[in-house]
Write a structure and sequence with these properties.
This protein has about 375 residues and is α/β, with parallel strands linked by helices. Helices cover about 45% and strands about 20% of the residues. Helix 8 runs antiparallel to helix 9 and helix 11 packs across helix 12.
Length: about 375
Amino acid sequence: MTTSEKFVADLCAMSFLPFWSFPSPIGKKGKELCDLLVVCHNTIIIFSVKDIAPSQHEDEVVVYDRWVKKAITESISQIYGAERFINTVESIQLKNSDHIITLPPKEKRIIHRVAIAFGSKDYYPLSMGDFESGYVNVFDEKATTTILKELDTVTDFTNYLLAKQRFSEKHTIMLPYETDFLAFYLQTGLKLDVEEDVVLVGENLWEDYSKCEKYTQWKTDIEVSYVWDMMIQSFYMDHVKPGISHEKRRDMERAIRQINLEPRINRMELGLILENTSKTKVKARMIKPFDGAEHTYVFMPLTGDNWEHKERELGLRCVIARAQFPEAKRIIGVAIGRTSEDNFTFDLHYLDMPEIDEKFIAYADSIKEELGFFKNIRQTHSKDMR
């Protein structure tokens, strides 16, 4: 792995967490498939990284053309080749490892393509778009660093890629740098009052946006969300490891992947709930599903009173939540406690039940009556718990 490839791999591991970022996967005939593959739920992101220094030539046009061929065109070719191979297989093996990456079902796969072109001169334009086999995003070093740090969840990053692709299909985008388009996206959501064929994004838009009060406030607001990222890492280390049954490992992986799909704005609210659950005397909370979601959460504090039977209690509370929210086909139970002032301990329960009937609802009601779990439901919003 080259220095630039490791740089991108480390950024992706930080943004998407290392459990879904796979450097140097193997393709046809044992050859490297691409530089990095991200696989989470139905999402697949193919990265190709090139670090090419401009050649020495008196004609700057020749220098640029040569650089594009090596840094961008060859990356695009690698990405398309990797996608063709991926479309023929159900799993991918990693280089120098026995680890197998199970791919999502072919009919559900959503594939994104990203070419990382390092080594360019600051004023080099980066061509991107559909080069006959699907839209390819092309980022330089500055764009890669900024975008992966700002859009540091799988959902936020892929939402950006998809929104940009759809926007470019209707508009010709003229912008100095990719980071300027990122600022344009974050401030407008790409929703314009007028339908212009050509959209000109101003220079230094990112620099101006990153210094504004709104951005500073956003960075302050999201600090609480990173307890959610910490929880995901804790769950993975504790639950997705050798020694547990195949069935439990499968369920835990599904739960953790679902948790990892939460965008940063959801993690703000969920992180706040996590922190408040560990501090208050409320016995448990169940959360109304986010708009359009088919899953939701139950949060339960861990105490000396419920520690011995925590798994059973958390599971029963998830049953009640499933009956309470018919639209939530999956319930993720999170038990949280504090081992010290700044350290948390977590437990996890996953209930995947696409359909429920009157018998199940009656069972949930009996739990409430007999054990008192969620017997008197009071809905609150996380903003009320600061």
